[in-house]
Design brief:
Helices cover 39% and strands 14% of the residues. With 381 residues, the protein is an alpha/beta fold. It folds into two domains: 134 residues, Aspartate Aminotransferase, domain 1 (Alpha-Beta Complex); 219 residues, Type I PLP-dependent aspartate aminotransferase-like (Major domain) (Aspartate Aminotransferase, domain 2), CATH 3.40.640.10. An eight-stranded mixed sheet has the order 2-9-8-7-6-3-4-5, with helices on both faces. Helix 7 links the parallel strand 6 and strand 7. Helix 4 runs parallel beside helix 9, helix 5 runs parallel beside helix 6 and helix 5 packs across helix 8. Bound molecules: pyridoxal-5'-phosphate (PLP). Pyridoxal-5'-phosphate (PLP) binds next to helix 5. Pyridoxal-5'-phosphate binds next to helix 5. GO terms for molecular function: pyridoxal phosphate binding; transaminase activity. It is an enzyme of class 2 (transferase).
């Protein structure tokens, strides 16, 4: 009854733990929910105002499939000036969220049996999108002793069937921000073996002491990189479903085809909100980053005091402690919810290497983080 494409895809384990938490909450239990991958801030008011204005002005019709010309121009300008990517509006497609952009890229580029290198651990939806496209995920270890940076020599994972490498920096779930030297090694590998890179940069603006580097800005990479980004995390716009991709001319027309036959276009007035996000004041982005930075310190310092092995993440809003001293990550996830009413995600959801970890999203207030740390003492003693 169900297509084999979908039968290969498991329900997301992060969704499972967040569903369990929500179920308890709906029964009145005071759960501190650290499973969410979304900022707890409201979308900035200037973005909402411009969107409402656009709607009232009659921007309620279809837009071009690839997006409003003005928004594509603004995105291309941002990619050129902030990310040093040599591009133009004609290579930019507005998508309904970064996630759908990733799905479209996999459906467009991956054939039955093609191999895609995925760094272990990785965000849950890459593997699912690869499976749906009929591809094969080849998991590649990262270095937990070096904040989950990619390993040095990835060439041994490459076969004749390898088509693409997925890079996600800042990374969900580890918070790792990849160094230039590691990105350069991946770029060299892609150039040497004629591979494409999907570079997911959705957490680019949630970065603390390091600088974000776009792999598409490196030599030879603009023609083989599809850069994915969006508005969900930087501008607290998760529910708007607004993202974008930048792709070389060799694949862009096919991406346009899949978008026009699947969604037609991203909701037209929502795209005006995106235009305001990019071209309007940026102070709310900075304020959110400051707040995340404070939460990060409170949480990670607290976890270390509890005896957990936990690096200070350089980006995103996740801590990824190793809990093996107290039990496997999945068991600790259950115990935290059952005994302390603290909901986290098991590291195993993000790849085999995560079996000893849990992921804690600190998109929650400092007061709630402090309370959670007190509750967690029951489990970590
Ligand atoms: C690494 C990563 N990429 C993409 C997304 C999805 O972003 P969007 O809301 O733009 O679809 C997420 C959401 O959690 C994510 O963690």
């Amino acid at each position: 009854m169900i297509s084999s494409r979908l039968a290969r895809v498991e329900e997301s384990a992060t969704m499972k733990s967040s569903k369990r938490a929500k179920d308890l909450m709906s029964r009145g239990v005071d759960v501190i929910n650290f499973t969410l991958g979304e900022p707890d801030f409201d979308t900035p008011k200037n973005i909402m105002d411009k969107t409402i204005e656009a709607m009232k002005a009659g921007e309620t019709h279809y837009s071009p499939a690839v997006g409003l010309p003005a928004l594509r121009e603004a995105i291309a300008e941002k990619l050129r000036t902030e990310n040093n990517i040599d591009t133009k509006a004609g290579n930019v497609m507005v998508t309904p969220g970064a996630k759908h952009g990733i799905f479209e890229v996999m459906m467009t580029m991956i054939d039955e049996g093609d191999e895609v290198l995925l760094l272990d651990p990785s965000w849950v939806s890459y593997d699912a999108c690869i499976q749906m496209a009929g591809g094969k995920t080849v998991w590649v270890p990262t270095d937990p002793e070096n904040k989950y940076q990619p390993l040095h020599d990835l060439s041994k994972y490459i076969t004749k069937k390898t088509k693409m490498i997925v890079v996600n920096t800042p990374c969900n779930p580890t918070g790792s921000v990849f160094d230039k030297s590691h990105l350069q090694e991946i770029a060299d590998l892609a150039n040497d073996h004629n591979l494409f890179v999907l570079s997911d940069e959705i957490y680019e603006k949630i970065i603390y002491d390091k600088k974000h580097i776009s792999i598409a800005s490196m030599d030879g990479m603009a023609d083989r990189t599809i850069t994915i980004n969006g508005f969900s995390k930087a501008y607290a716009m998760t529910g708007w479903r607004l993202g974008y991709l930048n792709a070389p001319a060799s694949v862009f027309p096919s991406l346009e085809k899949i978008q026009s036959h699947s969604i037609s276009n991203v909701t037209t007035f929502v795209q005006y909100g995106g235009l305001e996000a990019l071209t309007g004041p940026q102070d709310t982005v900075m304020n959110m980053q400051k707040e995340f930075k404070e939460r990060r310190s409170v949480l990670v310092d607290g976890l270390v005091k509890l005896g957990l092995k936990c690096d200070m993440p350089d980006g995103a809003f996740y801590a990824y402690p190793d809990v093996s001293e107290f039990g496997p990550g999945a068991r600790i996830t259950d115990r935290l919810l059952d005994e302390a009413q603290v909901a986290v995600s098991p590291g195993i959801a993000f790849g085999e290497s995560g079996k000893n970890n849990i992921r804690i999203s600190y998109a929650t207030s400092v007061d709630r983080i402090k309370e959670a740390l007190i509750r967690m003492e029951k489990v970590f003693q």
